[in-house]
Specification:
Elements (H helix, E strand, L loop, with lengths): L1 H15 L4 H16 L3 E7 L5 E8 L3 H9 L3 E2 L9 H8 L3 E3 L12 H7 L3 E9 L2 E10 L7 H64 L2 H13 L3 E4 L5 E5 L11 H4 L8 E3 L7 E8 L2 E9 L6 H41 L7 H7 L8 E8 L17 H15 L7 E5 L2 E7 L10 H15 L5 E9 L5 H17 L6 E3 L5 H6 L4 H22 L3 H10 L4 H8 L3 H15 L6 H20 L1 H4 L4
Parallel strand pairs: 15-16
Antiparallel strand pairs: 1-2, 1-6, 2-3, 4-5, 5-6, 7-8, 7-11, 9-10, 10-11, 12-14, 12-15, 13-14
Helix pairs in contact: 1-2, 1-6, 2-6, 6-7, 6-9, 7-9, 11-12, 13-19, 15-19, 16-17, 17-18
Length: 612
C-alpha cells in the first residue's frame, strides 16, 4: 500500500510541479508498470475529433512501435475492424477489457504483427475518464501469458482514476497557462497600442505646432527629422531645396534631376540610389498639384506604420505651409503690382517711396529696369512648360521662378508683373556689397528659368538705370520695346541691352513718338494706300526685300511668289516713292521708316494704329 501511495503522490507532485502533459502521461505509464509488475504500458487519449485513440504516453514501448500504431494501425472508435479492439471497447463501454493471450484473440488480429515485434502476449485496457467523460484508455502489457484477476483490475481502475484526475488538473493548468499567456499578449498589445497612440499623438502635436507657429517648410523638415531620427530634405518639383534638416551630422543631398523625374506617384515611393543608398520620397500635393517632395534615406519597409503616418502628416502640413507662402506671395505681388502700376503711370506720388519701403524696397536708390518675357516658338507657343507664355497662370509661374532666383539678393529687387511681362527693378548699387550688375542679373534669371523649365526659355531686356521715380515709366517703355523687337527678330534666350540694338535702340529712346509717326507716315503712306486699294503687299515685299539683302530670288522664295512678281512689285514701289531703290538715300529713308514702324509698334503700341 505504501508503494501505491508513494506512486500516486509522485504523480500528484508532477502535476503540481508542473510538468508538460506528455511527461506526466509517461510517468503514469511508468508507475503502472512498477506498481503492478508489468513490462509495458501505454496511455491513450482520444483525438480532437474523438474518432480515434492516440498513444500520448508510454513506458517500455519503442518509439517505432508508438509511431506505427498511431499512423499505420490507428485505434478507431467507430465501426470497422480497427474499431473492435480492446482499447476501443474499453473506451466505448467504460469497462476494463483483458486478453490473456493476444495470439488467439480475433479482435486483436490487426495489431498482431506489431505486438509480436514488441514481444508481449497479454494485455488489459482500462478506461480513462476526465471530469466524468471518457477520455482514453490505460493499456498494460505482459510478455508472458497472464490472467488479469478482479483485484488486479480494481487496482488498475483506481490508478486510471488517479491518472484521469491528473490529466484534468494538467489540462486545467495548461488552459490557465494559455489564458495567462493570452492575457500577457493582450496586455503587451495594449501597451504597444498605447505607446503607438502616444507616438502618434506626439507626431500630431509636433507637426501641428509647426503649422500653428507658421514655421514654414524648414520647420516641417526639422520636425520630421526629430520624429524619424533621420535627415530630411524637402524640394520643389524641379528638385531645388525648400527645407533641410540633418541628423547626427548627416545631411541628405539634393537628388539628381533624372531621379526627381521618376517620382510621379501620389504615394510614398522608394527609389534606388547606387551612391547614397535607397531613398524614400513622398509627394506634397495642393489641390492635386505637385508642389514639393519630401526625401528621406532608407527603405519603405523600415519606415513602419508610424513613420508612414508621420511623413503623410508632414506632407499635409508642408502643403499648408506652401499654401500660406503662396497666399502671402500673391498678396505681396499684388501690392508690388499696384506699386509698379502707379510707378509706370509717370506720376510720381509722394507715397510711392513709403509704400515701397513697407514692402522692403528702397526706391531712393538707383534701380535698373529689367523686363522678362517667355520666348515663343515658330508655332507661336512658349514651350511645353509655359504654354503660350501669356496666360495668367504662365505669368504667375514665371514670376515665381524669378522671385525665387532673386530672393537672396540684397538690397532686395522689386519683382512683379505688368501684363504678360515680369518686371524687375534691380538695385544698381556701386558698393562692394552688390551681388550682380543688371546684365549679370539678366543672365542669372535666364539660367534659373532654364533649370526649372526644361522646355522653355525667356529673354531679358536690361533698361536704363533710374534715379528718380518719374524716370521709371520711360525706362520700362524702352526696355519693353527692346525686348519685343529682339524677340521679333528671332532672338531667344537672350539678355538684351539697348546698345546691342543699334539704331533701334536709339529710336526707342526718343521721348516723343509724334515726329516718328509723321516721318514714317510721310515715307510709307503711298505704299500703304496702294496696298489698301489693291491688296498688293508692297510693304511686306519691301520689308522682305531689305531683310534678304536686296536679293530678288531669295525675296520671292521667302514670299512664296515668282521672282517676276517681286520685280513688278519693286517697280511699283519705286514709282510710288518717286526714286529707285538702288539709290543709297532712298534705301536709308525706307529702312528708317520701317524701323520706326517697328519701334512704334512695340514701344508705343497705343500710337502704332495712327500710322497710315
Amino acid at each position: 500500500m505504501r508503494r501505491w501511495l508513494a506512486g500516486v503522490a509522485e504523480i500528484a507532485t508532477a502535476v503540481n510541479a508542473p510538468v508538460p502533459l506528455p511527461v506526466l502521461l509517461d510517468l503514469v505509464a511508468e508507475k503502472a508498470c512498477t506498481l503492478m509488475g508489468y513490462e509495458l504500458c501505454a496511455v491513450l487519449l482520444a483525438n480532437d475529433s474523438r474518432d480515434a485513440l492516440v498513444i500520448e504516453g508510454s513506458y517500455g514501448l519503442t518509439p517505432e512501435y508508438v509511431a506505427r500504431v498511431n499512423t499505420d494501425h490507428p485505434i478507431r472508435l467507430g465501426p470497422g475492424p480497427l474499431g473492435e479492439g480492446p482499447s476501443s471497447r474499453a473506451f466505448n463501454s467504460g469497462e476494463p477489457q483483458a486478453i490473456d493471450d493476444i495470439t488467439v484473440e480475433p479482435m486483436f488480429r490487426p495489431w498482431g504483427e506489431v505486438a509480436r515485434e514488441q514481444g508481449y502476449r497479454s494485455m488489459v485496457s482500462v478506461p480513462l475518464r476526465v471530469a466524468g467523460t471518457p477520455a482514453g484508455a490505460l493499456n498494460c502489457y505482459r510478455t508472458q501469458l497472464h490472467t488479469f484477476d478482479a483485484d488486479e483490475l480494481d487496482l488498475l481502475i483506481t490508478l486510471a482514476d488517479q491518472a484521469g484526475i491528473a490529466i484534468e488538473t494538467a489540462r486545467l493548468r495548461d488552459r490557465e497557462r494559455d489564458t495567462i499567456a493570452d492575457l500577457e499578449e493582450l496586455n503587451e498589445s495594449l501597451t504597444t497600442q498605447h505607446r503607438l497612440l502616444q507616438e502618434a499623438d506626439q507626431i500630431h502635436r509636433d507637426l501641428t505646432s509647426v503649422a500653428l507657429r507658421a514655421a514654414g517648410v524648414q520647420g516641417v523638415a526639422a520636425a520630421l527629422s526629430g520624429l524619424l531620427a533621420r535627415p530630411v530634405l524637402i524640394t520643389d518639383p524641379a528638385g531645388h531645396p525648400l527645407g533641410s534638416a540633418e541628423n547626427d551630422g548627416s545631411r541628405l543631398e539634393v537628388p539628381h534631376v533624372e531621379q526627381t523625374d521618376e517620382t510621379g506617384s501620389e504615394r510614398l515611393t522608394e527609389l534606388p540610389d547606387p551612391e547614397g543608398g535607397p531613398r524614400i520620397v513622398a509627394p506634397v500635393l495642393l489641390g492635386g498639384e505637385l508642389v514639393a517632395r519630401i526625401w528621406l534615406p532608407g527603405r519603405l519597409v523600415d519606415l513602419g506604420p508610424l513613420g508612414h503616418r508621420a511623413v503623410e502628416h508632414g506632407a499635409t502640413v508642408a502643403a499648408l505651409e506652401l499654401l500660406r507662402r503662396r497666399t502671402a506671395l500673391e498678396v505681396e505681388w499684388r501690392l508690388r503690382g499696384d506699386l509698379l502700376s502707379d510707378l509706370l503711370s509717370g506720376v510720381a506720388s509722394g507715397t510711392l517711396g513709403s509704400r515701397a519701403r513697407t514692402l522692403g524696397h528702397d526706391l531712393s536708390r538707383p534701380h535698373a529696369v529689367l523686363v522678362i518675357k517667355a520666348d515663343t516658338t515658330t508655332a507661336g507657343t512658349a514651350g511645353a512648360d509655359l504654354a503660350t507664355g501669356t496666360r495668367p497662370a504662365d505669368v504667375r509661374r514665371l514670376l515665381g521662378i524669378v522671385h525665387s532666383a532673386t530672393d537672396g539678393v540684397r538690397p532686395r529687387p522689386l519683382v512683379t508683373n505688368w501684363g504678360e511681362f515680369v518686371v524687375v527693378l534691380w538695385p544698381d548699387d556701386t558698393s562692394k556689397n552688390q551681388q550682380a550688375d543688371p546684365v549679370t542679373a539678366g543672365h542669372m534669371i535666364r539660367r534659373a528659368v532654364g533649370r526649372t523649365l526644361n522646355d522653355s526659355t525667356v529673354s531679358v531686356a536690361v533698361g536704363a538705370v533710374c534715379s528718380e521715380l518719374s524716370d521709371y515709366a520711360a525706362a520700362f517703355r524702352v526696355a519693353r520695346g527692346a525686348l519685343e523687337l529682339a524677340q521679333l527678330r528671332g532672338g531667344r534666350d537672350r539678355t538684351v541691352t539697348l546698345s546691342e540694338l543699334g539704331v533701334y535702340g536709339l529710336l526707342l529712346q526718343l521721348d516723343d513718338p509724334r515726329e516718328l509717326i509723321r516721318y514714317a507716315d510721310r515715307v510709307l503712306a503711298p505704299l500703304r494706300a496702294y496696298d489698301s486699294r489693291r491688296d498688293a503687299a508692297l510693304i511686306e515685299t519691301l520689308r522682305t526685300y531689305l531683310e534678304q539683302d536686296l536679293n530678288t530670288a531669295r525675296t520671292a522664295a521667302a514670299l512664296y511668289v515668282h521672282p517676276n512678281t517681286v520685280g513688278l512689285r519693286l517697280k511699283r514701289i519705286e514709282e510710288l516713292l518717286g526714286s529707285p531703290l538702288s539709290q543709297p538715300e532712298t534705301l536709308l529713308q525706307v529702312q528708317a521708316a520701317l524701323m520706326t514702324e517697328d519701334v512704334l509698334g512695340h514701344a508705343w503700341p497705343e500710337h502704332a494704329q495712327r500710322l497710315g
